[in-house]
Each structure stands twice: as structure tokens, then as C-alpha cells.
Amino acid sequence: MSGPVAVVTDIEGTTSSIAFVKDVLFPFARKHLVEYVATHGEEPTVRQCLSDARTLAGEPSLDDVGTVALLQRWLDEDRKATPLKTLQGLIWADGYARGEIKGHVHADAARALRAWHARGLRLYVYSSGSVAAQKLIFGYSVEGDLTPLFSGYFDTTTGPKVEAASYTKIAQALELPPGDILFLSDNVAELEAARQAGLFTACLDRGEVAIPPGHGHPTFHDFTTLDPFALVS
Ligand SMILES: CSCCC(=O)C(=O)COP(=O)(O)O
Ligand SMILES: [Mg+2]
């Protein structure tokens, strides 16, 4: 093996602060959810989200008001449910476009992603946030438009981030052996799943939340000292 070909990165807690997601993005979606469904509720994507949420909850007869209440509950619980994530992305799009939200990306992450891209690494995102939401946070970021750096995006439609099969699917989509890929995350369960699928892993511990010790994944406080070429060989 001659080093990594691709880096797949998580967003919340890895490239971007947990506080931004919890204190800015989620409250913005919660504040605008009722109004958004009232004004866009007849659009096919929104109808599909409402219907998928009812199916997921096992409550097929819920009306729209009840479904919105369900989605609000899921939002408060930080449920990584695809219909909720899709709706959040649609709501955030308005906020980014109006300049009310700017995507948080750590300066060290932006700097490293630019350097790795320049060295020829293929960069991908795998986040519970929808692909649309991923493009927004990086497209309207405080570090500028970072989307030209990325070759592709994966969300929960590929599968849960804590299941090895999701990483196998990503490797297949990238047309790479898993051993050519480095996965970055702040979530040990995600790192375990990626390692089980044969990917290299690195844990980002930015000190925002307590990450249980002893997990065995190479750990970094930020991207400054994280060299994919030293980790994958
Ligand atoms: C795409 S930014 C919003 C992130 C989000 O909704 C979320 O649930 C965070 O999940 P991640 O997999 O990036 O930790
Ligand atoms: Mg994360």
C-alpha cells in the first residue's frame, strides 16, 4: 500500500463545532419548522418527508400537525432520522441564502482540507446531515466556499453511520479498497464501524464533549497535526 487515496470526514465535532450545530442550526430549524411545513407542505419532497416520518414512527394515520410535533420531538432528541434531516436541510437553505446563517468550519480543518486536496487526496463527507445540508455548511462557510474541495457526499440514505455496511457501501461507491480510505470522526461508534469495514480511522477530540478513553483510534485535538499520509501506509 502506498498511502491514502481518499479521506472521508464527518462534520459535527470533526470539521465543525458541536455548539454551532446544537445552538445555531437545530434551533433555527425548530423555530421555522411549523411555518416551513405550512408554506411548503404541498411540495413533493416535503410531503415525502412527512409520509416517511409517519412510516418510521409507525403512526401512518397522523395528520400534518401531529407529524410536525413528532418531528419537533425528534429534533429535540437529535434523532438522525432521514426525513427530519432532509427537512432541516431545506429549512437551513433559506437561512443560508438570506445570510442569517454562516456555516461553521474550524480554520484548522479548512486549512488541512485545502492542503490535502492540493496534494491529490480525494475528499468526501459522510454526515447524518443531508447531502444538501452538507453542501450548505461548506458552501456558505466562515472559511469560504469549500465545496470545490469535495468529490462527493454521503448521508443517512447510504445507511447509519454506526454500521460497518455503510462504510463498505461508501468504499464501493468510491471504487476503492477500504484500506485506501481514511475516515475522520469524533464518534467512537462510527470509528469502530469504519474500522470493521477495513477503513483507516482517526478520532477528533476537540474537547467539546468527553470522548471515552481507551478506544485505540489515533486521536488528534485538531487537523493541524493530522497527516493522512503518516496514518495510512
Ligand atoms: C450538515 S450540518 C448538520 C449536521 C447534522 O445535522 C447532524 O446531525 C450532525 O451529524 P454528524 O454526522 O455530522 O456528526
Ligand atoms: Mg460527528
Automatic annotation (TrEMBL):
The gene is mtnC. GO terms for molecular function: 2,3-diketo-5-methylthiopentyl-1-phosphate enolase activity; 2-hydroxy-3-keto-5-methylthiopentenyl-1-phosphate phosphatase activity; acireductone synthase activity; magnesium ion binding. Belongs to the HAD-like hydrolase superfamily. MasA/MtnC family. GO terms for biological process: L-methionine salvage from methylthioadenosine. Transmembrane segments: none annotated. Bifunctional enzyme that catalyzes the enolization of 2,3-diketo-5-methylthiopentyl-1-phosphate (DK-MTP-1-P) into the intermediate 2-hydroxy-3-keto-5-methylthiopentenyl-1-phosphate (HK-MTPenyl-1-P), which is then dephosphorylated to form the acireductone 1,2-dihydroxy-3-keto-5-methylthiopentene (DHK-MTPene). Binds 1 Mg(2+) ion per subunit. This is Enolase-phosphatase E1. It is an enzyme of class 3 (hydrolase). Its EC number is 3.1.3.77. Its cofactor is Mg(2+). Pathway: Amino-acid biosynthesis; L-methionine biosynthesis via salvage pathway; L-methionine from S-methyl-5-thio-alpha-D-ribose 1-phosphate: step 4/6; Amino-acid biosynthesis; L-methionine biosynthesis via salvage pathway; L-methionine from S-methyl-5-thio-alpha-D-ribose 1-phosphate: step 3/6. Monomer. Pfam families: Hydrolase. It catalyses: 5-methylsulfanyl-2,3-dioxopentyl phosphate + H2O = 1,2-dihydroxy-5-(methylsulfanyl)pent-1-en-3-one + phosphate. It comes from the Bacteria. Coiled coil: none annotated. Keywords: Amino-acid biosynthesis, Hydrolase, Magnesium, Metal-binding, Methionine biosynthesis. It comes from Corallococcus llansteffanensis. The lineage of its organism: Bacteria, Pseudomonadati, Myxococcota, Myxococcia, Myxococcales.
